[in-house]
Amino acid sequence: MSTSANEQSTSTNQVVYEPITIDVLGEEVPVAAWYPTTLNEVTSNQFSSKKVVYDHRISVKKIGKSLAGWNFIPEFTTRTFPISASGDIMQINSIATVPNFASSTVPVVLLAHGYLGSRFDLSPYAQDLASNGFLVLSPEYPESLADSYDSMTKPIDRTIITNMLLQNLKQWEVNAVSYSIIGHSLGCGTAIKTGDDSWTRVCIAGFPSSGSKCLFIGSTNDGAVPLSRAADALQSLNYNVLSEKVVRMQTWEKLAPRTSLIFNEVYNGSPPPNHISFLSEGTNAAMIDFLSPLLPLARYLEIPVLDFDKYQLSRDSDVTGEVVRPLERNTIRHRPFMVFKGVAIFSSDFTRARETAEIFANELRKNGIPLYNDEVTLESRLRERYFGELNGGPDDRYQDVWDVDCTDANHNKYGAESANSVLERTTKLICELDDMLQQSEKKWACVVVAHGDVLQILQTGFLKHVDARRHRSLEHLETATIRELLID
């Protein structure tokens, strides 16, 4: 339970860059890590005195094989481009298998690069988020143009790498208070498949997620993944559309759980971003430098070049990032445990709800997350809806009440409690809890545990243009599912 507003970046934390590796089926898979210096005690002699440079490796052999099916390109054609990190950032001296951010409590963000991408493609996003208190991890997936490990003779794929990275976080005793993932292009598929419904997802230049919380960003000038591929999904999943003007002026008020931004305007004489405009200027510049002599041949042979031909003219990574990053940061930063003192749990006093709440509370205690009053607070206003003469009967009879709900939210047919009565008692409770829990300087996140019908009806009080009559039309709330409610 929280409010949302357009937040400017505080960027008060100095950022550490640490290259690490994880073992995946015997292969050392590189992972780039960024985090604030405040995360752990790091001594000064652990830092490199040199300006941070990302070693961006480009394999011509991988590009030729992936785009044109060529198998004859020798390995020695591979080049490494040094990309200077922007801003105030420090680097840990050695490549580590047990990183310096181990045994920390922190919100975690994963980055998923696209086809023939790089773990440094989204480095500006990583640095920005790390400066705002996040641990950001970017693994090298098998489709990376770096081609720095054997993914051909071993069954290494994105899912295996991501799962292994998450497993390593547990082994390193990282207490992740929230999870988010940002995917670009093919990485959107990784974002969609990773984690559960509690994860926040940002899908850029790819396909939108059906998860409960996702920011989708696309462009009508994307020549690699046409926006038409996502249009039907955006509509069917009821994504709220942000205007490009609002985003450029950073004047949005509150982001809907599913929000989309579609670039479609000529701005200052420049066309909308292309497929790779969303990536780091450094990695794009390296690719342009590398591919420039080959682009005319690629066009002649009709080999797809993932919009690098467009980017060669636009060079718009930095200006695109200035627009996108505040929106992406706002989406990810609005997580329940990041700005709160701990969690307050209020539960129905009926057995099943109470037991569920206690299981959740015990997990919070195990992970060191403070619990309001160190207990689950029982609240009779969260009790199951009373179904009158149908109580204790077969569950399929509840449909008889719901059918009448659709036309009359005040009815008491079969002696059942009306939908509006449920809405009134639960929303009144939520407002009281909101006032009570925001008294201290550092507020409490609030989790209410109740029964299916009660929570379905409660949701209607938080959705514009929806009243209690339509509670059964909302997406079904599965058992033990967390769904966010926002109060203006």
Automatic annotation (TrEMBL):
InterPro entries: AB_hydrolase_fold, His_Pase_superF_clade-1, His_PPase_superfam. SUPFAM superfamilies: alpha/beta-Hydrolases (SSF53474), Phosphoglycerate mutase-like (SSF53254). It comes from the Eukaryota. Pfam families: His_Phos_1 (PF00300). This is 1-alkyl-2-acetylglycerophosphocholine esterase. The lineage of its organism: Eukaryota, Sar, Stramenopiles, Ochrophyta, Bacillariophyta.
